[in-house]
Amino acid sequence: MTAVPVTEDAVPPAGNPLVVLENVNKHFGALHVLQDIDLTIGRGEVVVVIGPSGSGKSTLCRAINRLEAIDSGRIAIDGKPLPAEGRELARLRADVGMVFQSFNLFAHKTVLQNVTLGQIRVRKSEKNAAEQRARDLLDRVGVGSQADKYPAQLSGGQQQRVAIARALAMNPKVMLFDEPTSALDPEMINEVLEVMRQLAQEGMTMVVVTHEMGFARSAANRVVFMADGRIVEQATPEQFFSNPRSDRAKDFLSKIL
Ligand code: ADP
Ligand code: MG
């Protein structure tokens, strides 16, 4: 399969990109799960990654956050190359906020503790300052009144908004979202997407794996379509949804739209 070159108006802003992947390859045994991935994400850019199940979207996110090691190629975050180790890796992870499909909150900690823990341990914030920041962020995502509850006492949509607040508390340079609404009941999807839209409007650099095509259309600067471990097509949402060029993308869109 030949990759379709990115078109003029889907090219990220030139100069000083925030996330750069060059010729990245990753195998799981015989499975070549990331194949020659080249991807540059500009500051403030919102990139939505879509594609069939098993195409390597989660592995891509995990590689950017160094939750998966890559076999070859280069990844750099804000000019700093991976792999980082030890303290440097902890700092890098703090620069890259991640929100997963499953909410991943610490079950035995309160909502407030969930949002202060990383600030205190990794960012070395004072407890009072961390709590103030946590409360501000919880207010911002609409769950300020839940601060003293435990995750299990919250709805899925509330938990996912706490997870977003927790990631933001680290003051990340880029936020990765891996199907953040896929595990939610339908009536809770919008409250999470709304928080993400807000973040995008505020200029956060975001990589979002999602099946929510409405979000892709309205919030993405660029759509990256993956299949079989490759980036098959990149385009603006307008181009991608109205005029997909690859057969794989046409086939994918015909099944979901
Ligand atoms: P997507 O997120 O697009 O559905 P993934 O990145 O999760 O795809 O997975 C891509 C492929 O890699 C799938 O075939 C999946 O089964 C496989 N895979 C993912 N993680 C592992 C792992 N830890 N070990 C072996 N195979 C894996
Ligand atoms: Mg996935």
UniProtKB/TrEMBL annotation:
InterPro entries: AAA+_ATPase, ABC_ATPase_HisP-typ, ABC_transporter-like_ATP-bd, ABC_transporter-like_CS, MetN_ABC_transporter-like, P-loop_NTPase
Domain ABC transporter: 19-253
SMART domains in UniProt: AAA
Enzyme class: translocase
Its membrane topology: Peripheral membrane protein
Main subcellular location: membrane
One GO MF term attached to the UniProt entry: ATP hydrolysis activity
Designated name of the protein: ABC-type polar-amino-acid transporter
Family listed: Belongs to the ABC transporter superfamily.
Catalysis performed (reactions): a polar amino acid(out) + ATP + H2O = a polar amino acid(in) + ADP + phosphate + H(+)
PANTHER family per record: AMINO ACID IMPORT ATP-BINDING PROTEIN, GLUTAMATE_ASPARTATE IMPORT ATP-BINDING PROTEIN GLTL
Record keywords: Amino-acid transport, ATP-binding, Cell membrane, Membrane, Nucleotide-binding, Transport
GO CC list: plasma membrane
Subcellular location(s) per record: Cell membrane
EC number: 7.4.2.1
